[in-house]
Amino acid sequence: MSRPNGKPFLWGTATSSFQIEGGIHNDMSVWEETGRFRNNGLDPRIGNAVDHWNRWQEDFDRLTELGVNSYRFSIEWARLEPEPGKFSDEAFDQYSRMIDRLLELGITPMLTILHFSHPAWFHDLSPWHTSSAIDAWLRLVEQVSRRLLDRVPYVVTINEPMVWLLAAYGDAKFPPGRRDLHELMDGLRHMLIAHRRAYDLIKAHHPDTQIGIAHNMIAFRRARKGNILDDDMKRRLHLFYNLLIPKAFVTNRLKFRFPLLVKIDEPIQLDNRIDFWGVNYYYRMHVRFRLRPFRPFDMLFVPRSKHGLSDMGWEIYPRGLYKCCRWLRFTKRPIVITENGIAADDDTVRIRFLERHLEFLHRLRAEGMDIRGYYYWSLFDNYEWLVGKSVRFGLFHVDYDNNLSRSIKPSGQYFARRITSSV
Options 3.30.70.120, 3.40.50.2300, 3.40.50.1110, 3.20.20.80; which CATH number does 10-422 get? Predict the structure, then answer.
């Protein structure tokens, strides 16, 4: 199956460094050590994750079992720059070997530069709500571009900026653990400027590299049929969460108003500097208006689609993937589905999830949408941020009680068959 540009469609899986590598000292591990994750009542523990940093060679061999032609992974900033301005040649060398091995296997690397986690020093010296974050991050990007990106055709600069900002500056579940919507919007502005500058920096060295952002999107629906207040809340959340960032690239303006909460209308020089939009899609949420000043809505997971809920409690709504991709048509940029997956201990649920979402992927492509890849989240069962290792997203089972051994699941075999049948 080829893409509109004549290149093979990208079939892959996705991971992030903190969730699989293990042995990392960064802002998230400090957050865990100081008990901040206990605030959610679950107290997740990363431990050694799934020890991918030491087992990456055998893990890459497992990619060949799936028959994927691409793999999306992230680098760990804290490994590469453990102290401000001091870079680790050893860590860069290992990531370089990883890229070389993927290429030897015929697997196209897609590298994510920032996937939620930061060095332990970052939030004290250059937090994202200050402009100093831009230069701190670009210092990393310059090194990554020079040392790694000559062999990487696809780069995601930032994974899910809206998700991270809401967790870090909205409900204080991620470091730096602040609750300030003005700082959240400052952080968004600085992240988008940082992407624009990183785009220009990377292109100056590697003009053919395709650069995007992985943007999480949610299919919102009003909770109560016929309720105009629910409908208004749903519309505002859609405009803020799903469309604010893509529209800023097209219009060179950050513009949004939510009474009593957020009002922003200012220029931002982005000039549509993005080669593709990554879509991370997982679920639908139902929005209910509430008469209260600082959060005038509730967001609920209700199994109205008849596909049930995942083990995360998220509503399974395959049509949402179709809707989210179509919402981005105005950007006039290709789309890569950079994450789509489900937490399910029952692997038959995962197979049905894949089957239904891939049906809508096929429909999008049949209708002429420029979709250039699909990456299932995730390759392995791994650490899932706020709930730890209590849920399983992987196409490969990880036995946490037996030396972290890996074994392919029936869903992994199903995914491999679907890839084979599409080629």
Answer: 3.20.20.80
In angstroms, the CA 392 to CA 401 distance is 15
How far, CA to CA in Å, does 224 sit from each of 221, 271, 284, 289, 307? 9, 39, 15, 9, 19
Cα angle: 55, vertex 60, 64; to 5 degrees: 145
> Does residue 121 contact residue 84 with C-beta atoms inside 8 Å?
yes
Report which DSSP code applies to 385: G
Q: What are phi and psi of 347, to 5 degrees?
A: -70, -20
For position 1, what pLDDT does the model report? Answer: 47
What is the Cα–Cα distance from 29 to 46, expressed in whole angstroms? 8
Copy the structure tokens of residue 154: 């696809």
Pairing of strands 253-258, 396-399: unpaired
The answer to whether the CB of 356 falls within 8 A of the CB of 318 is: yes
Whole-number Å distance between alpha carbons of 182 and 185: 5
pLDDT by 10-residue block (mean), the chain, 423 residues: 71 98 96 85 87 98 97 98 98 98 98 98 98 98 98 98 97 95 96 98 98 98 96 96 98 91 93 98 97 88 95 98 98 98 98 98 98 98 94 98 98 98 81
CA 125 – CA 129 distance, rounded (Å): 11
What pLDDT is attached to residue 423?
64
The residues facing 281 across adjacent strands are: 217
Q: How far apart are CA 20 and CA 23, in angstroms?
A: 10
How far is 318 from 361, CA to CA, in rounded Å? 10
Domain ranges within the chain, ordered by starting residue = 10-422
Render 342-363 in DSSP notation, one character per residue: ---SSHHHHHHHHHHHHHHHHH
Sign of the dihedral through C-alpha 385, 390, 393, 399 = positive
